[in-house]
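User: Fold both of these, please.

Assistant: Here is the first one.
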Amino acid sequence: MSFQLTIQRPAEIEGIGLHTAAPCRVRLLPAPADTGIVFRRVDLDNFEIEAHVRNVARVSYATSLMKQGVLLSTTEHILAALYSCGIDNVYIELDGLELPILDGSSKPFIDMLAKTSTRRLRRRRKYLRVIKPLEFSDAGRKIGIYPCEEFRVHCYVDYDHPSVGPQEVEMT
C-alpha cells in the first residue's frame, strides 16, 4: 500500500472556459493528508467544493460539481491529470465558474504538475475493493465494475457508422 501525495509547491495556469469563454486563473496549492481534492472559488470568498460524487451536478458535455447552489464546470481534465499523476490531496483555487479548456486535454495540467513535483505524506492511501460484480445497462449501453487484483480498464465501443466502427482498448 502506498502513501498519499500532494504537490511540492504551488503552480498556476490560466485560460478561458470552453462553454463560457470567460477567463479563469487556476492555482494549485499543497494540501495535508486526507484533504482530498478541494476546489476553492476565490471569486466567492474561497467557497469550497470537494471533488466528491455527492457534489456531481451533471456530466453532459462537461463534468460539473455543485455545492449549496455554487456551480463549478469542466473539471474533468484537471481531475484526470491529478489522478494520472497520483495526487491525492490538493487545493485548487480558481476565480470563475469554469476551468480553462487550454488545448482541450489534460496535458497542460499534467505538464504543470510535472513542474511542481510531488511530496509524499505520512498517511497511507485508502482503496475501495470491489468484491462482487456490478453492472448497469440502458438503451443498448453497458458499464460494469468487476473484482480484480489490479486496476484494469477495458473499453469497447461500436459506433453505427462505417467510418468509425468498433474500437477497443484495455489498460492496466
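And the second sequence with its predicted structure:
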Amino acid sequence: LQPKFIDFVNRSSGGMSGISRKRFKEDDFINASINYLDISEQRRISQRLSLNKETLGSLSSETDLQSSLLRNLRQSILQEAIEGKLTGTWRKKNPVRKGDPEYDAAALLENIKIEKQKMIAKGKIRKDKPLAQIKSEEVPFVLPAGWVCIRLGDILRISSGDGLIAKDMSKIGTIPVFGGNGINGYHDKSNVNKPTIVIGRVGALCGSIHLTPSQAWVTDN
C-alpha cells in the first residue's frame, strides 16, 4: 500500500497560503489500479493470521501461567523463611547458645533495648509509648528455637528526613541525597551516618525501599 500512497501523492495537486495542501480528485481513486488477491489467496492469508492469533494467545496464556507460578513460588519461599524452614539444617548444626545475640533472638532484643535506653538518655531519640504485649493467638506458627515474636516497633523507629531541594545541593558534593524514588542528587553534608532503610512516602513510587551507604542525606520524601 505504501507505493500506491506515494503514487497518489505524486498525482495530487494544490496549495494554499504557502502551506502545501494536497487534493485528490474522484477520478484519481476510480481509475487507480490495485493488486487484488483471489479468494483462495485471501483464505490462506486469513487462515495464517488466525493461526498466528491462536499462537500468540497460547503464548500469552503460558506467560500468565508462568508469572502466576513464579508469584506463588516467591510467596512459598518467603513463608518458609518466616517460619525458619530454610535454615533448619543450619540450626541443627548451630544450636541456640543462650545469651549469644548471634543465635538467641531474646538476647539480641535485650541488647537493642539497652542501646535504645542509651540513646534516649542522650536525647538522640524520644521515649516511645510501650507497645501491647503479643498474645499467644497472634503467633501464627510454632517458633523455631531461639526465635521470639515481637512488634516491629520494638526494633526500629520511623522518622522523616530533612528537606533539601536541588538548588541547595552542593555542586561538588559526593554524598548521595535520597528522595522517595532513590538518589536524586549529591551534597557535601549528611544527616545519617550509618546504613539506613529509606521508604518513599510520596510520589509515583511511594513505598519503594532503598538502603543508604554509611553516609547519606535523606530528604523528607
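Helices lie at 2-11, 26-30, 39-82, 88-93, 105-121.
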